[in-house]
Automatic annotation (TrEMBL):
Gene Ontology terms for molecular function: acyltransferase activity, transferring groups other than amino-acyl groups
Residue intervals of the N-acetyltransferase domain: 9-170
Species this protein is from: Neotamlana nanhaiensis
PROSITE patterns registered for this protein in UniProt: GNAT
InterPro entries: Acyl_CoA_acyltransferase, GNAT_dom
Pfam families (alphabetical): Acetyltransf_3
Keywords, in A-Z order: Transferase
Protein name: Acetyltransferase
Length: 174
């Protein structure tokens, strides 16, 4: 699908071979804050998820894609979640796994491809994301792609016993 191919990366469906990669991401406590994870995931549960990852977004209300470079290295994940067909909207999340692969434009290119896919192929009217106010990298990423800050949720996320404010960003199709 040409829509999901960029200059440096492409987005692809999850494969059984992604088990270890996803297991590492889901069990990395340093990113639990952005993924809203509370407990570790077993390989068994992730395998079950992968076994059902082929299901249609209209049925399961989510889509997770791998971000890969043209050397076929998996760099990260990008998600569509809370897919709401009636109201033509969905949430979006992006993660580039390795720190040395961040700030190289991979997340930005992946988000651009996903936005185009959502508006062109899924017929969505709007996308949104939730970002803690101290996550400057994500704020920069989503703002660069045209997302606008539309609200602040005070004391929204509890992290290590303290509450953080969270911004709501939104992108409405022209």
């Amino acid at each position: 699908m040409i829509t999901l191919k960029g200059e440096h990366i492409y987005l692809r469906a999850l494969e059984p071979e992604d088990l270890e990669f996803i297991h590492d991401i889901e069990n990395d406590e340093t990113i639990w804050e952005i993924s809203n994870t509370q407990t570790p995931y077993s390989k068994y549960l992730i395998k079950q998820y992968l076994d059902h990852a082929h299901k249609d977004i209209f049925e399961v209300k989510q889509l997770r894609l791998a971000i890969s470079n043209y050397n076929k290295d998996t760099l990260g994940m990008i998600d569509i979640f809370d897919f709401d067909f009636k109201n033509s909207r969905a949430g979006v999340g992006v993660l580039v796994k390795e720190i040395n692969n961040r700030d190289k434009g991979f997340g930005s290119e992946a988000l651009k491809l996903l936005v185009n896919y959502c508006f062109t192929h899924l017929g969505l009217h709007q996308l949104y994301c939730n970002i803690t106010e101290d996550n400057q990298a994500s704020i920069k990423l989503f703002t660069k792609q045209g997302f606008k800050k539309v609200g602040l949720k005070k004391d929204w996320t509890k992290i290590n016993g303290s509450y953080k404010n969270e911004y709501l960003f939104q992108l409405i199709k022209n």
